[in-house]
Design goal:
about 650 residues, alpha+beta, Rossmann fold, eight-stranded mixed β-sheet, globular
């Protein structure tokens, strides 16, 4: 089911920059300094900075349940708003009018309304809005202060109601409500007993599963009918994955992704009546598997997906496999993903992706095999001028295979390059193959980019993930240091021109790199990264409190591991930081508070270290507004020109 776009712990939001005059000035400065480096990059090859980071023409394509209309988000007054097109008449209607904040995700409810989530200034307190497709105006259905809502179920067979969670009663707890998207009436469906972190419905929209986070355990609660009480059916250490995906079409059993008695997760059909994993649906020998594809109309599971170097599919159904092959023949050289389908499963929304393009949205009529383009996402970007993202591996100092992606400039030398090491956020996440505007921008300026799935990253099995526990600034950081050594030994990197830049956890890794291996980096860019792990753990949002014990296990306990957290918090080691630093922060960030950036900036400035500091008052954990993205990346370009490229 579709969900509002919510953010994961420390997950980087980045796609982020100023005014036309400043942009033009910066570009001239950049060309001059590039030429001074001996002409490594021809100035005629420069692509305007804004082209990489401005809002797309269209994105987030979807189709109405009856297949008669399509929707997408597109810019209006510099914010992404929702537009709806009647396929038969061709009439397009803008149905939202957001000017302060872009719409952050949406779903169809029936054929005449769209719901979406929106916060204020990046505070992540998403309200639920309802917008009729006639353009008569959107309504905030949950206009409550300091309250966050999330979508549980669109209720496919109910055109007037959805299920949402809301923490209005207690900021730590999310209760489930049935919400009338026309009148705004809220009806309590389930009150959180105090520790439920996730609610899951069956195909009839009945709450059947609740996931409890209690200390270091995950407890799965289940009930057979809506009249029954929830009762525990599984209690597992949080290191063991057991994640329900969807019910079977008899609503008696459900599919799960799990690593019980194994390292990599696989997909099974689970029987709650006898507590048995009955049938393995799909496994992969090297990576975790969690993506299951089903046909609601035919009531069958038709395929699975997994991510190794790139995204891959396996199909169990000839009909669906034939559709995929047809689409891939029509759209060669692109990753082809079906992102939506009409209720009768005759019309699909198709998206293309690649490492050199943000792709396009299409509507595909299955019976006629007719493919029609809706829009290119960013048509001003010329694929022939974009860099390839190449999967790479190297071996860490203690023998682990580390995966990542290397992107080199299209033109000029491919050796002895200035490099930006770009660790991902999370840290319990991973980098993926695909178009990355930051990477392409840096490549276009003659800078190589290396992205590494260091230990602790997800997708490579339980053991690899656990190897990152209590290793912030230690072995996790060593993997980044080893990545730099690999680039230098391979002849890719000029050892005197290596920078580190990251968002969220990647921002922490930037500070840790400058503090603990100062000899490696010429400069660093920390974007919404924590500097003090004590204050980070003290200031988590209230609704993360049930997970605090596992944070202590994965990062460190402020009392029991005081020595460790002091050792790995960069703010306590500013005397070792000598390289120039650029810090960017959202004032409303609920995950990494502004105090994290304030601390490191103040401490470094007291020592006379060059620090540039950008704070945006209307942003949170990453910059969403276009003008703030422009500002950030323009400052990044000037900073790298001065400290990396000279």
């Amino acid at each position: 089911m579709n969900k509002y776009k919510t953010l994961c712990f420390y997950l980087a939001l980045a796609t982020l920059l100023l005014s036309i005059g400043a942009c033009a000035k910066t570009t001239v400065e950049t060309k001059t300094k590039m030429e001074m480096r001996g002409g490594r990059v021809d100035k005629t090859e420069f692509i305007p900075l804004r082209d990489f980071f401005k809002n797309p023409v269209a994105s987030a394509f979807s189709i109405s349940p009856d297949g008669a209309k399509i929707a997408w988000t597109a810019p209006w007054q510099d914010r992404m708003n929702i537009f709806v097109k009647d396929i038969e008449s061709g009439e397009v209607t803008r149905i939202t009018a957001s000017t302060e904040r872009s719409v952050s995700g949406y779903s169809w409810v029936g054929n005449s309304h769209i719901i979406y989530g929106q916060d204020t200034g990046g505070d992540e307190n998403l309200h639920t809005y309802s917008a009729p497709i006639d353009g008569s105006g959107a309504t905030d259905l949950t206009p409550f202060e300091n309250t966050r809502t999330d979508l549980v179920d669109e209720l496919d067979n109910d055109d007037e109601h959805i299920l949402i969670t809301m923490n209005k009663r207690d900021p730590r707890l999310f209760d489930v409500f049935k919400l009338n998207i026309i009148t705004g009436e809220l009806t309590l469906e389930a009150e959180n007993p105090g520790n439920v972190s996730q609610w899951i419905t069956d195909h009839a929209g009945v709450l059947r599963i609740a996931i409890v986070k209690q200390g270091g355990n995950d407890i799965v609660l289940y009930r057979k009918t809506s009249q029954d009480e929830f009762a525990p059916i599984k209690t597992l250490d949080f290191r063991t994955t057991f994640s329900p995906l969807l019910f079977d079409f008899d609503n008696n059993k459900f599919y799960v992704t799990t690593n019980i008695d194994r390292d990599n997760t696989a997909i099974y059909l689970y029987n709650p009546d006898n507590n048995e994993l009955e049938t393995m649906i799909f496994e992969h020998p090297e990576v975790d598997v969690s993506n299951l594809i089903a046909s609601k109309k035919r009531k069958v599971v038709i395929g699975a997906g997994y991510y190794s170097d790139k995204h891959h599919y396996v199909f169990f159904d000839d009909e669906r496999e034939e559709v995929q092959l047809d689409l891939e023949n029509l759209l060669p050289e692109y990753e082809v993903v079906v992102t939506g389908i009409s209720k009768d499963e005759t019309k699909m929304i198709v998206r293309t992706y690649s490492d050199k393009s943000l792709g396009a949205g299409y509507i595909y009529d299955i019976p006629s095999k007719k493919l029609e383009k809706i829009a290119d996402v960013s048509p001003w970007l010329d694929e022939s001028r974009m860099s390839a993202m190449k999967p790479i591996t190297f071996t860490s100092r203690d023998g682990l295979t580390i995966h990542g992606y290397l992107s080199l400039p299209v033109k000029g030398p491919q050796k002895n390059l200035p490099v930006v090491l770009n660790p991902h956020g999370g840290p319990w996440a991973r980098d993926h193959w695909g178009f990355n505007p930051e990477v392409q921008f840096l490549n276009n300026r003659g800078i190589a980019v290396l992205q590494i799935n260091f230990r602790g990253s997800t997708g490579y099995g339980k053991s690899f993930w656990e190897k990152g526990f209590k290793q912030w600034g230690l072995n996790m950081q060593n993997d980044l240091t080893d990545a730099v050594k690999w680039m230098v030994d391979s002849g890719i990197a000029d050892p005197k021109k290596v920078a580190i830049y990251g968002v969220s956890y990647g921002g922490y890794a930037t500070l840790a790199g400058l503090a603990f291996t100062p000899e490696i980096y010429a400069c660093g860019i920390d974007y919404v990264g924590p500097s003090n792990l004590f204050t980070l753990l003290e200031s988590i949002p209230p609704y993360w409190e049930p997970e605090i014990d596992r944070f202590y296990t994965m990062i460190g306990d402020p009392i029991r591991d005081k020595k460790l957290l002091t050792q790995i918090s960069p703010v306590f080691h500013v005397d070792q930081i000598t390289a120039p630093l650029f810090v960017a922060q959202g004032a409303n960030d609920p995950r990494v508070k502004q105090a994290e950036s304030d601390q490191i900036v103040e401490a470094l400035r007291k020592r006379g270290v060059a620090v540039e500091y950008m704070v945006k008052e209307n942003e949170g954990h990453g910059f969403m507004n276009q003008e703030n993205k422009f500002d950030f990346y323009e400052k990044m370009e000037v900073f790298l020109n001065k400290h990396l490229l000279q």
